[in-house]
Amino acid sequence: MENSAKYLKRNDALLLLAKQLGQKQAFTNEELLKRLNERIIAWEGGKYCHMGVNKAGVDCTKLVAMIFIELGIFSGIDDVFYSSDWFLHTSEEIAINELARHCEKYLTNEYKHFVLDYDEKILLPGDVIFFAMLPNKPCHHAAIYCENNKIFHAINNLGVCFAAWCSAFWGNRARKIIRIVK
Hints:
The chain is of the alpha+beta class and 182 residues long. It has five helices and eight strands.
């Protein structure tokens, strides 16, 4: 409980500001959550392809962006090249920074975003979670948190799929959350 109190001190200022501005977490809207689930199911079973942007092949961050475009949350996406092993050659949080930049550039007028420190206790459907899959390396994997303790992502050997949220595996690698608010 003490860790939870520390977390609230760090991140609730942003959430409180969102509430004061009359904004709510985007996916608490029943209709939008239903549409998110429909889009996720439509993408399920797709292939993984580094830098891909369609159902024939997509990577983890482009999957998030494409689903958000389909929902009308993003108005577009940049086609910026990055090597498949970029995270081995830098300590910079490129994946988080790029999605945050996309939020600033392409979020439609009714939406805002917040980058939060990871805490499993505050996960909500629609949150984008960033993972550092290797020790002492930047985050280089992203997934959408879904209902029923699952994440949805595009991953190299499995393609576009659900994974059970397992704190021992995913929780130990999770670092940041991007939350979209309306």
